[in-house]
Write a structure and sequence with these properties.
This protein has 7 helices and 10 strands. The protein has 253 residues and is of the alpha/beta class. The strands form 2 sheets. Strands 3-2-4-1-5 form a 5-stranded parallel β-sheet, sandwiched between helices. It has a 5-stranded mixed β-sheet with strand order 6-7-10-8-9, with helices on both faces. Strand 2, helix 2 and strand 3 form a beta-alpha-beta unit. Helix 3 crosses helix 4 and helix 6 packs across helix 7. The longest helix is centred in the middle third of the chain and has 22 residues. The protein is globular, with a radius of gyration of 20 Å. 37% of the residues are buried.
């Protein structure tokens, strides 16, 4: 069930942390993170976790931490039965664990960007909502793509431009189809998919207009024309952008 119960009450609150710069976090998110007694976050095994890194120095020294380690990430194809089964079991297990804790405690779940835009928490959210026995809230965050297109210094859409958001995990043909039908493009989940994204952009005639933004809004931010970047190692959370060039009033001088 969803309601606006007291922020100190037992339950689960997923907090959108924004695109990376801590100063772009909402006031509400900042307050919840700093006051958290129980904090859960996703991470790849052996890694600190991107969301957890965003709140370094913000958590209370008494906060209990619950790293939710993915059983698999890019080791096997995302559409394989083994991948689907392992991830489903992972989300089922953590749904049970967090629900049990949240009956007596408030649990803050960290999520980079916005939880409802390609966020891992969505898979927990639907399971927890179906249970109906835990107070469940979600705090919006500025999506990573918003921080990235601001980093280029250019507006992403004009006038009647159509914006399409897609993931680099799509097939090359599907990427081309989506690129052909939109004016402005955002391609998320880049990483090892960059060569395929580059080929799709070339086929769609959009390669020369594309930008690559890595680690947007953080101290490690890198912004470049895609044509100036090779296919070397690229972060999974990098974003490829093509700006719209639609209708706009011309300058009067």
């Amino acid at each position: 069930m969803l309601n606006k119960a007291s922020l100190a009450a037992p339950g689960i609150i997923c907090v959108g942390l924004g695109p990376g710069d801590p100063e772009l976090m909402s006031i509400k998110a900042d307050r919840l993170v700093r006051g958290a007694r129980h904090v859960a976050f996703f991470r790849k095994k052996g890694r600190p976790g991107k969301a957890r890194q965003l709140v370094d120095g913000m958590l209370s020294g008494q906060a209990a931490e619950y790293p939710m380690e993915y059983p698999v990430t890019t080791e096997i194809p995302v559409d394989s039965p083994a991948y689907v089964q392992q991830l489903a079991q992972f989300y089922d297990d953590w749904c049970l664990r967090l629900a049990a804790l949240a009956k007596h405690e408030q649990v803050i779940v960290l999520c980079e960007g916005d939880p409802f835009l390609y966020g891992s928490f969505m898979h927990l959210y639907t399971r927890l909502r179906a249970r109906g026995d835990v107070d469940l809230q979600v705090v919006p965050g500025i999506p990573g793509m918003v921080g990235c297109w601001h980093a280029t210094g250019e507006p992403i859409t004009w006038g009647d431009d159509v914006l399409s958001v897609m993931t680099g995990t799509l097939s090359e043909d599907e990427l081309v189809r989506r690129m052909d039908t939109a004016d402005a493009l955002v391609v998320m989940k880049v990483g090892r998919n960059l060569p395929r994204i580059r080929r799709a952009l070339a086929r769609a005639g959009r390669a020369d207009a594309a930008w690559l933004v890595q680690n947007g809004t953080t101290d490690q931010q890198q912004v470049a024309r895609l044509s100036d970047v090779g296919d070397e190692v690229c972060p999974y959370f990098a974003i490829v952008l093509v700006h719209g060039q639609g209708r706009r009033p011309e300058a009067a001088w």
